[in-house]
């Protein structure tokens, strides 16, 4: 069985420690549970697991080991859930064993979840069927134009007289097709005008431009200094 203790005082407050085997408590780095405090002995106490029970034993520490505010005077004491174990001024609360928690979770997960079935009311089914029956297919603009008497291509070529060169004779310019009723021409939007996009200046190009400007400025300063020295030597 695995036990858990939680720090309720000291620097480790809120931290939980799992005890699944015998564990040495002390200030030394070789301890299983290292407590960095001057009032803790190098080998202060030990937790023992015996027959699924948790025991604590004091190892003749300088500042003692306490259980529920009583210093251990015997070799070891069996702990139970809710006990307060104290090493000097560091306090820990004994929590429920993990096996109990695992059994509780397993029992909850084993409980079948009720299945909720969604029933369709008869009125809703009738309304859906009536809606499906009253749906009218929407014809396209081309279909509407054909229904209003636009001739097909084969019919347009019938009865056309051809010249010797094969050119059609007495062909009248056809009128534009009438616009079907219900077609909104204002809904047709013109194609968007492409907007010019400025290319971003890369970071490398910007650094090169800055270095170039710095070099030009430096050369200008050097030229001015040289001219000043020459002028001073000339008029000296």
Automatic annotation (TrEMBL):
<dbReference type="InterPro" id="IPR050923">
    <property type="entry name" value="Cell_Proc_Reg/RNA_Proc"/>
</dbReference>
<feature type="domain" description="FHA">
    <location>
        <begin position="23"/>
        <end position="72"/>
    </location>
</feature>
<dbReference type="InterPro" id="IPR008984">
    <property type="entry name" value="SMAD_FHA_dom_sf"/>
</dbReference>
<dbReference type="InterPro" id="IPR000253">
    <property type="entry name" value="FHA_dom"/>
</dbReference>
<keyword id="KW-0472">Membrane</keyword>
<keyword id="KW-1133">Transmembrane helix</keyword>
<protein>
    <submittedName>
        <fullName>FHA domain-containing protein</fullName>
    </submittedName>
</protein>
<feature type="transmembrane region" description="Helical">
    <location>
        <begin position="216"/>
        <end position="235"/>
    </location>
</feature>
<keyword id="KW-0812">Transmembrane</keyword>
<dbReference type="Pfam" id="PF00498">
    <property type="entry name" value="FHA"/>
</dbReference>
């Amino acid at each position: 069985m695995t036990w858990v203790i939680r720090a309720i005082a000291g620097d480790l407050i809120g931290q939980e420690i799992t005890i699944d085997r015998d564990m040495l408590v002390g200030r030394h780095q070789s301890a299983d549970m290292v407590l960095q405090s001057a009032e803790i002995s190098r080998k202060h106490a030990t937790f023992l697991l015996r027959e699924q029970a948790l025991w604590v034993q004091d190892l003749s520490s300088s500042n003692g080991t306490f259980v529920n505010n009583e210093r251990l005077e015997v070799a070891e004491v069996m702990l139970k859930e809710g006990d307060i174990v104290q090493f000097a001024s560091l306090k820990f609360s004994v929590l429920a064993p993990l096996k109990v928690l695992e059994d509780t979770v397993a029992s909850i997960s084993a409980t079948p979840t009720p299945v909720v079935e969604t029933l369709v009311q008869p009125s809703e089914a009738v309304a859906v069927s009536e809606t499906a029956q009253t749906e009218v297919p929407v014809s396209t603009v081309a279909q509407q134009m054909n229904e209003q008497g636009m001739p097909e291509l084969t019919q347009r070529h019938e009865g056309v007289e051809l010249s010797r060169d094969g050119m059609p004779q007495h062909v009248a310019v056809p009128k534009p097709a009438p616009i079907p009723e219900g077609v909104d021409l204002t809904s047709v939007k013109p194609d968007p005008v492409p907007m010019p996009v400025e290319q971003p200046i890369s970071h490398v190009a910007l650094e090169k431009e800055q270095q170039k400007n710095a070099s030009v400025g430096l050369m200008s300063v050097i030229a001015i200094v040289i001219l000043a020295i020459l002028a001073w030597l000339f008029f000296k």
